[in-house]
Amino acid sequence: MKSIVIEKPGSFALRDLPDPVPGESEVVVDVMACCVCGTDIHLLQGEFKGAEYPLIPGHEFSGVVRKTGVKVTNVKPGDRVAIEPFIFCQTCLFCKQGKTNHCLNGMVIGHTKSKAIKLDGGFSEQVVVPARNLIPLADSVSFEAGGFIANIGTLVYALRRTGLQHGMRVLVFGTGANGLILAELAKKSGASVVAVTGRTKSRLAVAARMGVDETVVADEKQEANLRRLAPHGFDAVFETTGVAPIVERAFKYVTPGGKIVLYGIVPPDQNASVNPFDICRKDLQVIGSFSSVNTCIVAQDLLASGVIQVDHLVSHRFPLEDWGKAIEMAKDLSKCMRAVVRMA
Known about the structure:
Elements: E1 2-8, E2 11-16, E3 26-35, H1 38-45, E4 61-68, E5 80-83, E6 86-87, H2 93-96, E7 107-108, E8 126-130, E9 134-136, H3 143-146, H4 149-162, E10 169-173, H5 177-188, E11 193-198, H6 201-209, E12 214-217, H7 222-229, E13 234-239, H8 244-250, E14 254-262, H9 276-281, E15 285-288, H10 296-305, E16 316-319, H11 323-331, E17 339-342
């Protein structure tokens, strides 16, 4: 099989590797589509903490089951599946408490290396996956859309963490695919007004086509335009960029008694300055949202039912041998919404 191998930071190659063999509780999946994530860029650049090289990246993918281990009963060869990339141990303190996203022994397919379990990622013609990490993929959901399921699961989790109620005014900072899907889900969850703000006008245009009420360019008129929409602030403000100064800015636009949801992952060496007095005086809730807990199956259901659609968010497609071009395109936020590598 052909696979993309990041051999060391800054260096990758398309390699011919032996076809994988599943363990007793694993399956081999023929990968059909794998989305390019910012994490893949960071892995290539050597910026992802804890990464061990060489590794096969890719954690947002879907495909068809090729082989199953002897103890696998939940799927069979030929089944269409998406993958939940986070692997939790099921036995640590937090797993026992249902906080599987905080597993003390957690690993991520396409990120982590382990001697105990295969964790190669989806930028490969075939990949071994634990059977319990498979999400059945309905025939009505494309393989490209199946690659979004892991991310949509995190968005559903964030909305559940927020406790979004009908009639709320919602502001989303960030115009990446995740920010736009979150805004659409917020609107369809009963928000009265959903606004999205960001710098890239082409992405704001996509947001408008997705049913968002208002789009606001992040320029010198941003504050005036957001104040016009919500003079006393928004009930829920979602920060999806992972940029520390934008986290700080989010506090300007939340109403007293409102909620700020930190969805974007700010690098661990960066800090944001907030005023504790304002949090106290305004009765604010600051909510962190990391990964997902039992929501990837909900993500599949949302796609299968047509509540949301994501195929229009795929702006560029590449074959596996052009993975490097896919990475470079994904870096250009002015042109690329989401790049996908297709195996067929």
